[in-house]
Specification:
10 helices; L-arginine transmembrane transporter activity
Length: 301
């Protein structure tokens, strides 16, 4: 039995949530180090120095600061992303004149992923802002930019609402969109091209877990290499707005380059590259297998 559009959307949403959960549980420590190095590059000499200082200051739990909002952010983002990815694939089929069940090329899948990411950014921005602030709370307090407070999700949310209102959680939305839309073109493009390479004439659906994880890792590397400076600016905007600074994307970008040099835009790139393979590999593995499982259950029914 062919699934209806509503059932297909529910399957994609659920599979995306599974993928987002796997991604966070696998890559959260690397993401924490990335955000710290992006926001306070003058405090850390490199990846190892950041890891050692984080451990000495707040212990092993410091690497998992922001895990709750990270889970919410990734589950929300990937649920919406993969659900909209299915819809956007149908839009691309209509635009290029293909039938509903026709296979899209790797380039067409990349375009569909890019369109879908714009919708995902709307749910990602508020939760990622809370995550980034929690991850850098120790540095913000130590540098005197904010007063000492309880480092909990709820305290960050209350503080944000009190200072800037609900719209304050969308600080960095423009930079999030600037990162997501082109970034996910390369993300899905790299993933689909890698799957085509490993399939080598067979159906992509027949690929095992190792090629899927490697393809997910390639997709993650492509995304971050393409848009990493934009992500660095976004992290600065979302974290430093906590202390009352309201600079926009262009102003923050110019300030970083002028005061710290262009290399500051690549602070934290190493942990991001290390994280890309396990985190995005786990994301696509969980997504593809949970999606296949649900599809087979509905077809059997």
């Amino acid at each position: 039995m062919k699934s209806s559009p509503a059932i297909q959307a529910a399957i994609d949403l659920t599979a995306g949530a599974a993928g987002g959960t796997a991604c966070v549980l696998t890559g959260q420590p690397f993401d924490t180090v990335k955000v710290k190095m992006q926001t306070f590059p003058d405090l850390y000499r490199g990846l190892t120095d950041c890891c050692l200082k984080t451990y000495s200051q707040v212990g092993f739990r410091g690497f998992y600061k922001g895990t709750s909002p990270a889970l919410i952010a990734n589950i929300a983002e990937n649920s919406v992303l993969f659900m909209c990815y299915g819809f956007c694939q149908q839009v691309v089929r209509k635009v290029v004149g293909l039938e509903k069940q026709a296979k899209l090329s790797d380039l067409q899948n990349a375009a569909a992923g890019s369109f879908a990411s714009a919708f995902a950014a709307l749910v990602l921005c508020p939760t990622e802002l809370v995550k980034c602030r929690l991850q850098t709370m120790h540095e913000m307090e130590s540098s005197g930019k904010i007063a000492r407070s309880h480092n909990t999700v709820w305290s960050v949310v209350k503080s944000g609402l009190r200072k800037n209102g609900p719209l304050g959680f969308y600080h960095g939305l423009s930079s999030t969109l600037l990162r997501e839309v082109p970034g996910y073109f390369f993300f899905f493009g790299g993933y689909e091209l890698s799957r085509s390479f490993f399939a080598s004439g067979r159906s992509k659906d027949e690929l095992g877990p190792v090629p899927l994880m490697l393809s997910g890792g390639v997709g993650g590397i492509c995304l971050w290499l393409a848009v990493y400076p934009v992500d660095c600016v976004k992290s600065r905007i979302q974290v430093l707005s906590m202390s009352g600074k309201q600079a926009g994307f262009v102003g923050t970008l110019i300030s970083i380059v002028k005061n710290e040099g262009i290399t500051a835009l690549y602070s934290g790139l190493k942990p991001t590259m290390i994280r890309a393979f396990p985190a995005n590999g786990a994301l696509f593995l969980a997504y593809e297998y949970s999606r296949k499982l649900m599809m087979s259950q509905f077809e059997a029914y």
